[in-house]
Amino acid sequence: MSLLKKLAGETALYGLSSIIGRVLNMLLVPFYTRVLSSTNEYGAVIDLYATSAFIMVLFSYRMESAFFRFGTPEEDREATFGTGMLSLFASTAAIAGALLLFAQPIADVLEYPQHPEYVRWFALILAFDCLAELPFAQLRLEQRPRRFVFIKLTNIAVNIGMNLFWLVFCPWAAKNGMNWVHAVWSPGLGVGYIFMSNLLASLVTLALLTPQFRAMRWAFDRALWKKMVGYSAPLIIVSLAGIVDEMFSRAMLKYLLPGTPQENLGQVGIFGANYKLAALITLFTQAYRYAAEPFFFRNAHETDALRTQAQVTKWFTVTSAAGMLGILLFLDLVKYFIAPKYWEGLHVVPVLLMANLLLGVYYNFSIWYRLKDRTGLGAWISVVGAVITIGLNLVLIPRFGYTGAAWVTLVCYTFMSAATWYTGRRHYPAPYELGRMAGYVGAALALYGVGVFVKTALPGMPVVSFGINAVLFGAYLGMVYLLEKGLKVSG
């Protein structure tokens, strides 16, 4: 229990940056969906960030995971960090240089021929973010969450501040005769200021991490580098496949839908905005992952490591199911995070919430192949998941649009979590309480069904419906408390 409490404490600290950061960034969603003039403009934001997620994997090639694996013994940490950073410096310069050099052809392929500057900005954003990955991993491994949180929150503050400056203050100042504002703002740039805000935030973040660069050992260990790359290479496939699972639909909607490019981008914007609502459940997942990965590597050799893994996974499922239920019961309030013109896509939120819950369970199950150096097997599972995603999206998006894409996401994450659990039984036989985990998820879905029935039976009475939904949510929490308390007493 002491290890569980320690993980919970670290999750809470990382959650300060993750949850606050995600909440503040979520507040950009209603901001963007109202400030940007059309759904296709927001679709461009969703589309370019989805595309950049693929490229980011090539930039970082999962060197942070290799650092956790080979830098866990404290005596090896400096050499691992120095070798990893020197490798990243060289590869980042090469990839970013290529993107800058071929910005126009890339913009043509992405169907933004008038905006090659988008490619250039993203090349720099990805370069800065990649170089920050390993220093952030070092802070996590060294259990320095306060500095981690400070830098992450600074990044968020700069990003949001510049968004407000360029998209709100500057247009207001120009309308009120403050001509000086035209020196730093152009009304024609529009959505580009979202990317410029991100670029400045990434640059400030990298600057705040420079003390770690100054303290690093500037020595390249070729033998160690080969081990690190050999370990991380399958994880590159895992990450690329994972991004296919998460981002492929958003990246390909504009190509697979039958409308014009601008109409299709509008559909991308609607799907992306509602995906953001479903992603609220990942606030906890992100904070948990920051703490959990180094936690499990540090405690892999403890005698009760398997039982700890099972207990952590159960409580993760309990918490995620509670988050899913809360969003579903109060979706009529949560939907105001996005503008009304995006509400036509709300029907996919329950499907995507369940998919995101299963994605979090998959993260828990998948820890075994990183601990046991079986990343190749993890890569095969991820590849199959990506093939399922691509194949089903190619079939369903032309027929059902983004609704089909949402169901594909759920099917894929169901497969991923099941396959990772099944293959891990022999190599890492953690005593997962699968029946109890499924029971909690099933109970959450059943209570949501009751909430839908009440809303249908009491039309025009939203206050009463919200009150009943609050009781239903409390019933879930009470059920968990009574069952788990009963387990402790009987144990």
Task: Describe the protein's architecture and organization.
There is one protein chain. The chain has about 500 residues and is mainly alpha-helical. It has one domain (about 1-490). About 80% of the residues lie in helices and about 0% in strands. The chain is globular and about 70 Å long. The model has no long low-confidence stretch (mean pLDDT about 85).
Individual helix count: 20
Task: Report helical residue fraction.
Answer: over 70%
Q: Characterize the main sheet.
A: none
Low-confidence stretches: none
The number of distinct β-strands equals 0
What does the secondary structure layout of this molecule look like, with pairings?
Blueprint: H1 2-35, H2 39-60, H3 63-70, H4 77-101, H5 103-109, H6 116-141, H7 145-175, H8 192-208, H9 210-215, H10 222-256, H11 261-278, H12 282-298, H13 305-329, H14 331-334, H15 349-365, H16 367-371, H17 375-400, H18 402-427, H19 434-457, H20 462-490
What keyword list fits this structure?
491 residues, mainly alpha, 82% helix, 20 helices, 0% strand
Summarize it.
The protein has helices at residues 2-35, 39-60, 63-70, 77-101, 103-109, 116-141, 145-175, 192-208, 210-215, 222-256, 261-278, 282-298, 305-329, 331-334, 349-365, 367-371, 375-400, 402-427, 434-457, 462-490. By secondary structure, the chain is mainly α.
